[in-house]
Records
---
Amino acid sequence: MEMELRGYSRPIRPGVTRVGWIGTGVMGAAMAGRILAAGYSLTVYARTASKAADLASAGADLVSSAADAAAGADVVFTMVGHPSDVRSVVLDPVSGVLSTLQAGGVLVDHTSSHPALAREIASSARARGCWAVDAPVSGGDVGAREGKLAIFAGGKMESYSGLLLFGRSLGRPLRWASQGAGRAARLQIRSPWPEVFWD
């Protein structure tokens, strides 16, 4: 049975909002670095821990699983390589984000994946009393480093519009109201899944 969600009302503020980040490939590491530089507390899971060394040096906490990154977080971002990676780090019943994300928490998936998977994740998140936003990006590693990504966000963004503050640290959010619509829009301009996203 899905839990009723009444809107995201937690404050989105540096030093207050606790952020989990999963995926430190070329783009993921740059995006996480911008969130950290904006003053947010950041807990990072990287499949290859050495690729998160710079983030750790800048103050991020490194953990050993996606579930650990989500535990205690208000917002969790994922930026991995393939739909199968998204499914694993989000939906695994033991080590996935949704196994530990607290009710009222938000999952923002920046991976370029499938609209159907975005809807499945949103349904699973709602069942736990959590929010999910599918928000694939365009702009490459340069856009990630410079905070100039186009962000194709799908989901009920009006319920937690404060998340746009994160989007502005990363680039320019472009909003679609329905779950999976951001993915569908992104797929219109996308090449095959990039190997550089996941570590």
---
Amino acid sequence: MFNHAELGSEEFKSCKYLVEKLKEHGFTVTCPYLDLDTAFRAELYCGEGPKVAVLPEYDALPGYGPNKDEVAHACGHNWIAASTLGAALTLAMDSIEFRFQGTASHAAAYPEKGVNALDAVNLMFAGINAMRQQTRNDARVAGIITSGGAACNIIPDYAACQFYIRAKDRAYLEELTQKVINCAKGAELMTGAKLEYFNFENSYDDLVYHDGLRALMHKNLNDLGVTDFVDSDEEASGSSDIGNVSHVCPTVYCELDTGARPKVFAHHETFLKYVHGKMARHTLHTATKALAATALDVFENPDIFLFFYILKTFPPASYVSSYAAFLLR
């Protein structure tokens, strides 16, 4: 995108590139979107639960180059698009709980009358362990037994397990998930225990800050080695339509120091040298990981943290701006 910089509402090449990448990874894409030729909406269903959106920008600025007549990414929007795309693709993961219902019986007196649900779980694990030999290096299947019986002398009539299934791209993840499900179905067939399974997890306005989401982002950036923070309430400058979004739903926004010394500033010619360099790639990876980790926190802790704390701090409907109200029609 750096080499094909385009003005706002004219980002046809950048939009096409992002849309194609998202489709390759299993996203359902609507483009154009809301009557904007270079806008799109990409959706990936991950089961019931919270919904998380990442918002890319990919427009460039005019007035650069030797004759001040060139369009260039002097604000780093090519990296904003790349980091949000990376965060979305990082979330290619399925979380599935498998439950087996058997028939309880005394393990010594009447073993022939029992249908062992725990056997089904164990056979499922055996199948998955064998399957791992034929999976791609970027894929991971990790599981635990969450229920396996109550007493040694009783054949378990109920057993359950949970799995995280991860892959680099959604297309392969769906293929791998189906193989895991097939292992469960095979265990059902071998034991007679009944199987069920399900996903267990999943004008510009001012920016409304949310302490809950900001704390999550702060923690994740700190884990990635970013330790020097400036309070955004004090240092905020410029405008962004992310402010409009923040009046509609809880939003987190942050900016990362370029790391360039002497410092470079957005919208300046010197920024162009940084934004396409090696150091910028490190910052990009940090931003991508922080966004993805924060999104995972939302998915994994909906009732413990976000729905109680963040929604509590979110302003009531009376504070929603007229523009945000228009968006919600």
---
Amino acid sequence: MIRSSGIERQLQGLKIDDPDEEPSDAEVWRAIVAAGKLQGVYLPASYTKESPMNLAPPKFSDGTDRSLVRRWKALTGLGATSLERDLYYLTPYLTCERCNGLVFLDAARMRGFKVDGRDTALFPDETLVKCPGCASTVEYRIGAHDLLDQIAGSRAELARMLRSRHRAAAVLRRAYRFYLRRARGRAVRCEALVRGLLVARCGAVAASVVRGRLGRRKARTCRQVRVIQAAHPMSLARATRGDGDVWGNRRVPDWYKRELAGPTRRRRVFWYNSSRQVELLYHDYLELCARLGFLPPRFVVEANICEIARRIELREARLVTAVQARWRALTVQRLLLAFLRERVRWRQVRAAAVFRICRVVRGWMVRNDAVAARRAEIFRRNALGAYRRHRDAKRTKQTRDLMCDALRAAYVQERARERTARYCGLVHPSAAAGNKMRAFEISAYGSTTVADQATELTASIAADLKAQRSDKRAFDDRATVLKVRCDADSTLKTYHDAELRARSSRLIQQLSASHRVLSEKPAALLRHYNASINASSASVKGGRRPLAHV
């Protein structure tokens, strides 16, 4: 219940600026809502500012439950006037529209929310009780009402709805049973089809297995027939003997005895006497069995063919082994003869190589002794001349060094005199077109000492160069002199020829490495090389001498 005093206080708070002004309808509605919120009362959502309402006076007391008034003083020690309710509620009863049950709310607890007189309070949540008839809180109606007529109408409608649902369920059951019957029929037909396909597949697999076994059996027998057909008549005649002996009067090998051990050793065979039967056997042995009425049976014919082919193969293996043994014997004999001949030739080649090595070693030893003796003789002969040339060269070098020092001192002295004369004004560069040294030389103070010493030094150097060129030319001409001397002496000629051959071989290797392929003979190649060396020696003084002579 909302008090009028609370609404007036809210209006005064809204009209602080002008308290005497008449409030509007919107302001009155705002004051009512604010007063209800302050007292913990919330208006229903269906209430608006146009809805009719009555405001209770301040001293209005609730007399709904007078037992609370009598027990209030004993419970709280307060007076009965403290039951003035600030809480506004419609009714403490709730009616269930489903089962017509009545629910009573705890009004005593609601009245005690603001007993202490506080302006604000935190109210605990209260769980809405369930209906004792249907245990539901969805279809509550505020207040105490009698809803039996409405519930009876709802039950009749519910009965009609249930009947229609039962009829619809029966239709659905019939449709689903028909669907299940069709699905079962389809499954039975599919099972029968699958079983038929499985039986057909099993029959096909069994037939293929039988055909495979018969085909392999026929292929094996046809292969043995081809062996008999390709065999020699003598081998066939020996294989068709009753005892099956394929070795004649020879000793039977152990491996053959092991091969024929058991029931196959005494197996008897037969053969056809008619040529037409033999031709038909080679063409198709099954056709021959059919024409003979399968007498003997097919398995007997196949076993007979396999036994004859086995004997033929054993006979051919024996003959091939004998031929291979004879051929290996002939081959070994031929290879042995070739080996003996090659061994003799190998020994001859090694002996020839040894003889050549011995000859080369003896020649090398003799040449070493001759060369050492020759070098000692030449050293003794040229020792004095070498010492004289060494002393001459040393003396020449010392003399030239002295000449260079004297020329350098004379040049420095001449430069100092020229500078002194020019500074004293005795000479002037304009006398020789700006050349200072030339002007000093043509003056009365100049001399030719520096020029004479320079000419003397140049002449000495030119004489030394001329002597060196003469020695080089004499060394180049010495090859011809040595060749003439070697031709006159047999020992020197042998040594000279050996050296030329070694040098020629090295030169040929060098030219082969540079040209990759030799298109000319070695002698022509050496002649061309020597000709090119001679031409270069003629064009340039002090040229190279040939590396080899042919």
---
Amino acid sequence: MSNKHFERARETGTPSGNRRLQQEVQQAALHCYAPSQLSAWRLNLEGTKILYGENTICLNTWDQHATDYFLRLRPETLAAIRNLHVFYSDTTWVRESPRKNSWDYAVYDYAYYDMLQTRWVQVCSTLQRAHRDSLTLTFESCAIDLNATQRMLGALSKIRVQHLRLSMGAYVRHSQGLTRTLHETVRQCTSSQPASTESPPDSSFPFERLPYELQMNVLSHTGLVITPHSLGMDRVDILWIRVEERPRPLIGGCCGTCNTSNFASCLCHSNYKETISTTCMCERLPDCLFRVSRNFGKMAHRTFYSLNQFYVTGELFEMLQHVENMPSRNLGLVKSFCVDLGIMPAEDCYEYIGKMNWVEELAVYDWNKPRNRKALKKLFKLLHKRGHSDLSIKITSRIQLMLILQHVVEPHDKPQLRIFCDWLARRKYPRVSVMARFSKNRGGFLRQDWDTLFLVSLIEGEETETDDGESWLDSRERLVRWYPYGAAWKDILVGAIYGPKVPLLNS
């Protein structure tokens, strides 16, 4: 944090309050936008309400540093918290058995529990003073002793919350006394409070009266815009997922790495036999924003179509039909359009596992077929006629960009791709870009030209490790993955070989 932000904060607010604010910002890792919050005292108050009110705050009671920081928060900051998740640690530790044939046994740590209980009572007292009944609290612990659990819940029962969720482990099912304590705690915590006599705060500035640019900026953070993280292509793969330190896929459900910013369906690696997750909830569009009011619906409509990148794939005549059926008022707002050519059907992926070079060659040959060029002419003409004046059209092939890296210097389709780009140049399409895959040249630099097109830095016969720590030979027979393997992908650049130098994904 630079000193100029702290100096500016002291000039625009009260000295004592900003000194306290400076200390909080230095200690809290959650203040991602601290410079803007420090620019003025009013902005800090609004930013703090959004930061603590719209996020779920997690508190680990066994972390003394986190608990001490939580207790030092300002009353206004504590009052802004709407969702709090508390993890209450276990009070036992495992002692190794002195005998080799005996099981290790758990030891109840009374000294640790007394210290933990003291901090927990302080947290409950702080929340009791700061909150009335607007808090949603989730309390998670593992109940192992009735007496200790009753003391734990006794401090919790002093807090008044709007919603309460208790997770106490399997011990609850075997203890009737603990079950009664839980019901009593829920009744006390969620009991209604008398009406407040305080005057309501001043009404905020109407959102409709904000400048147009500020409205679009605010709405872009509500989920209407699905954007990937702004990382360089040398650090992420084609799905905009980090190559390094990628978590191991989960056994079931969603792996958490799905991204639908550039592709029509959500791709998930949670199941080795499936590439599309049917239960993924990573990207949930807030449909309710379109139904708030007529004016707000128009703003949400404009934000959704102008700031997202739209993606079509399949047969060229099918894509042309989809674009023709798109309402003109919607298509006129779209500024980024991605056309995927040469994609292979999912049922054919397993058939061509050993024929990757032939599949890559097939893609660009399809582009150069006369009937496909005729469909492309109609598609480009339609997009230029009915689309936005700043519309960017990106032509790509998921096969070329995402198949496993081959142990070859240049594939056979490189001349065909050049013929296709020359055809586009003769047609003089101003806003069309052809996306391709580049690699480092022999000098070790990433260049976006024909000399580095499709080059592969893998050495023939090199045993490459996959991103999830599994070997190449064990994994290639399971599934044709939609991202390349190994550390060589970090040396890959995806960019435009023809047309404006636009990124593949909106950043």
